[in-house]
Write a structure and sequence with these properties.
alpha/beta, 3-stranded parallel β-sheet, 11 helices, globular, binds guanine
Length: about 290
Amino acid sequence: MTAKILSGKDFAAQIKESARLEVEEIKNKFNITPGLAVIIVGENPASQVYVRNKHKSCEELGIKSEVVTMPENTTKEELLNKIDELNAAKDIHGILVQLPLPDAIKNHSEEILNRINPLKDVDGFHPMNVGKLVTGSPALVPCTPAGCLEMLDLAGIEIEGKRAVIIGRSNIVGKPMLHLLMSRNATVTVCHSRTKNLSEVTREADILVAAIGKPKFVTADMIKPGAVVVDVGINRIAPKKLVGDVDFDAAVEVASAITPVPGGVGLLTVAMLMKNVVKAVKLQYQI
Ligand code: GUN
């Protein structure tokens, strides 16, 4: 079997087009221009690329984009003050602090992210938004897992009743993915670094999600023939070579559908961020 390749490009374009129409409607009906502020602290090259892509997408869709660049030696207090300022700004509806933060303030990440007004928290990382997701009334949902789900839906892949296995338990992907898939009536298992007999568990999966950050960690023998494989990993193994968490060339022979890296779910993350900015406007104005 050779898997169907779920390319993110077309799906991302569809999602962005629907966000663009919503932005247009909000402008016409309510005279509001949705605004996103992205804060980047320091000079992490990967983060700079991600932030540039977010800015470009905003411009394409008619969303006002403010990129706040802060130096590597920014203190926690300076960053908190900036967040307070953006929380109060009337023309900013979404705030995102690009991660990872520099080493000097990294251990304050939680306090910093929690300072964002939950209604402007387009990353969906605030405990209030996490709680809403867990209790089944999601508001702003983390963009990457939301993008994975959207992609499965757009590809016509059924979720209800399926066995889903997630490898990785991060707050950004693994945990929200668990709740999203469970809310759609999948039976979900979350595996992590201490899971015993990992490949026995992963071979049970109808839908296998890899979100661990280890290049080509998921090998063909870990995949049930015919499974759908969603690869969330983005690992740089050489200056110009990105690979996922799945050994794509081998997995493509076993799975029924698979997302590539690059060009897979990564593209959906930015598209879902645009959707979240629109959603944030709607939550703030109750429209
Ligand atoms: N860095 C890598 N992924 C993400 C994300 O989803 N949100 C933020 N803020 N930073 C990231």
